[in-house]
Amino acid sequence: MWCHRLSHLQSQIRHLLKGGVTHETFQQPNFKSLFSLPIHWHHTSSKSLNCAWQQHEDHFELQYANTVMRFDYVWLRDHCRSASCYNSKTHQRSLDTASVDLWIKPKAIRLDETTLFFTWPDGHVTKYDLDWLVKNSYEGQKQKVIQPRILWNAEVYQQAQVPSVDFQSFLETKEGLKMFLQNFLLYGIAFVENVPATQEHTEKLAERISLIRETIYGKMWYFTSDFSRGDTAYTKLALDRHTDTTYFQEPCGIQVFHCLKHEGTGGRTLLVDGFYAAEQVLQKAPEEFELLSKVPLKHEYIENVGECHNHMIGVGPVLNIYPWNKELYLIR
């Protein structure tokens, strides 16, 4: 049937190209017979909202905020925020996920202004704000704004003249803390000046930022070149560019260093922007970047000095990126 129609249409086109005009009525194919299920798009009456949705056999498709999103019905039921399914005080699920039918489908869907209502087979009603769905959809995550950063080398950082924060301002004012955090989030490093040279004041500073993680070295600790621990940092050998705690399952997010006493020469700190280096690899050798971000490596710390006997292993790629927006968030 289709071959005959295409052949007939082709002959008509040839005739038109030759200058002839023929008026003839063509029978339209019955598209409904080609699909087992009808497809209906539901549109909002408000042009400003610009929202439409489509109910498929196994998922719900939503067009809103210039984003096309897909939600499995079981996900929509499991993430219900009603009082019987979700504890809004603890932000924890009350619903037993195992009780949700994997093939569940809503009986009805309706939109009231900016809220979608799903009525399930047992009569339970789930409601979702459209903006919440965008924020929590996989497609919405892809569009999420990446943490602003300033990638730097020595020249860039020197020209930026990033200000340090005074210790008292850092501890006692929101402005001082804000300046420190802005510097840290933008550049990955930040400096606080005029900190008294004691472990107690260093700890006080660290607690102003976040909780302090207990490690095999303790909560807060001194280190000097006495080789009291099986680590190069406890020797007089120079430490070149490196990343710390790669052998932790979750490497440290923020490290605080404070020189309490210095005698003699040497001991300078070398800082490198690993994110800048990673960006250079991405631009110049994307295949190598992909390799470093996908192949997990075993990172080890082996220590047998005095009473310290530790063997720690952390597994993961050198470059860790979020799969939804390809944002680099960790370097081992």
From TrEMBL:
Q: Give the matching InterPro entries.
A: AlphaKG_dependent_hydroxylases, GBBH-like_N, GBBH-like_N_sf, TauD-like_sf, TauD/TfdA-like, Trimethyllysine_dOase
Q: Choose one Gene Ontology CC annotation of this protein and give it.
A: mitochondrial matrix
Name the pathway. Answer: Amine and polyamine biosynthesis; carnitine biosynthesis
Compartments, record wording: Mitochondrion matrix
Which segments cross the bilayer?
none
Q: Top enzyme class of this protein?
A: oxidoreductase
Source species, domain of life: Eukaryota
Tell me the GO molecular function terms.
iron ion binding; trimethyllysine dioxygenase activity
TauD/TfdA-like domain ranges (all copies): 161-323
- Annotated coiled-coil positions are none
Keyword NADP set for record: no
Give the record's keywords alphabetically: Carnitine biosynthesis, Dioxygenase, Iron, Metal-binding, Mitochondrion, Oxidoreductase, Transit peptide
Presence of keyword Oxidoreductase: yes
Recorded hits in Pfam families, A to Z, give: GBBH-like_N (PF06155), TauD (PF02668)
Q: Which cofactor does it need?
A: Fe(2+); L-ascorbate
User: What GO biological process terms does the UniProt entry carry, in alphabetical order?
Assistant: carnitine biosynthetic process
Q: What does this protein do?
A: Converts trimethyllysine (TML) into hydroxytrimethyllysine (HTML).
Among PANTHER family, the record links this protein to: GAMMA-BUTYROBETAINE HYDROXYLASE-RELATED, TRIMETHYLLYSINE DIOXYGENASE, MITOCHONDRIAL
What NCBIfam families does its record include? carnitine_TMLD (TIGR02410)
Subunit structure comment from the entry: Homodimer.
The family assignment reads: Belongs to the gamma-BBH/TMLD family.
Report what the protein is called.
Answer: Trimethyllysine dioxygenase, mitochondrial
Q: Which organism is it from?
A: Octodon degus (Degu)
**What lineage, starting at the top, does this entry show?**
Eukaryota, Metazoa, Chordata, Craniata, Vertebrata
